[in-house]
Amino acid sequence: MNSTSLAADKRKLGAIGEGTAEGKRLHDRCPVKSLLAGADLHTDFPIFEQKIRGRRLVYLDSAATSQKPSSVLNAMDQYYKTANANVHRGLHALSARATEIYECARSRVALFINAARPEEIVWTRGATEALNLVAHGYGRAFLGAGDEIVISRMEHHSNIVPWQLLAEEKDCVIRAVELNSDGTLKREDLDRFLSSGKVKLVALTHVSNVLGTINPIAEIGRKVHAAGAVFVVDGCQSVPHLPVDVRALDVDFLAFSAHKMLGPTGLGVLYGKYDLLDRMLPFNGGGEMIEEVSLEGTTFKEPPLRFEAGTPPIAETAGMIAAMDYLTRLGMDHIRAHEQELTSYALERLKEVPNLKVFGPPDAERRTGAIAFEMTDIHAHDVAQILDMDGIAVLAGHHCAQPLHDWLGSPSTSRASFYVYNTKADVDALVKGLLKVRKCFGCDDRPEDGSPCCDSCGGASVCPDC
Ligand SMILES: Cc1ncc(COP(=O)(O)O)c(C=O)c1O
Q1: Residue having the nearest C-alpha atom to atom 14 of ligand 1
Q2: Alpha-carbon distance 31 to 12, whole Å?
């Protein structure tokens, strides 16, 4: 495939560019516009048909994984019913059909993030594997003793541990950019590290999964490249929520997971500039990634197949096409606008909850709808458990970001995170739930002398009436 075949794929698949007549028509009928006007998309997502403990499901854990629309479930079901076979192997009809789906999905991802060509898209099992692939395939080949790798304190463990393993193996040095009090990167740290002339690779998240901070990737990328380093970006929390254009951002590698963007689990994407991928070592060895194997040695295929050893997730790529269709129909700019409005609303309403500390930038322009918070007098796990009793799903813990939690001064926080199907009613439910948590645990209205706050309390630390 090349850019000509990418253009052909675009026509064939009817990709919807915002600038086309079809794009404009869909833009005008955009469901997110009506969503902003108070409608919701719940009917597209079967999971919302159920009740949780007799209550409406308020799903506020999309930063961990998103829910899936029927179209994604149907696409995978149809794949197994009509096209199931292994890819790139058989000459029979089903294998050709499976391969076409698999490769079409690759082209669609290339279009979705504006890669120059489909061969810049490597399928992986998830973002974690994608980042490990860069550490192995690029890091092991091109980094050596004394070279520096820059990460930041806000990284997910998936963008820390692979670099630590690499640094240990190759005797490299890890430098970490610290944070300002509003949860943004200390850019002066980055400038200082880059000025040493020893930095070979910078790996940063586009959006923090805890603070919601949106990092200025294009601007940082210019500095990284001026210093002669390679720029790896963790797009797990940006690709599902913002328009992401890898060429406009000029990143060298971008990793993300299908399951956070309405798609299935078990499928991830590594975008890499082709000339870099082409110089990289294989990651896993096995079937499909080879050109020729003899008992004396092996030659390898060109990217991306060089990095796709063994039977890949195939049905998942069918689901991924449907997920990208769904997101494209909503329009990534509308999704961003919707989430920005919800985030603004939530940041405002959360001020009503006593003893609640919200982390990350205080304004919705500089952040996404992943909102971590702490009730200063109640443990995050208790907060999540009581919310769950009312069908409200939030995540509690360190969110795979322990260095960040060291900085926050708290081993665990609660996190509410929004996506396309959330509405202001969900924010209202969260605030009401948090006030109830306080009533259960802290009984804000309990008199200071310790006497019961209500008939049921009886002075108990947990109010049985709540
Ligand atoms: C910022 C970030 N990076 C990496 C990951 C890892 O993604 P996965 O578990 O899908 O590989 C996550 C998942 O929560 C994330 O939020």
Answers
A1: 64
A2: 25
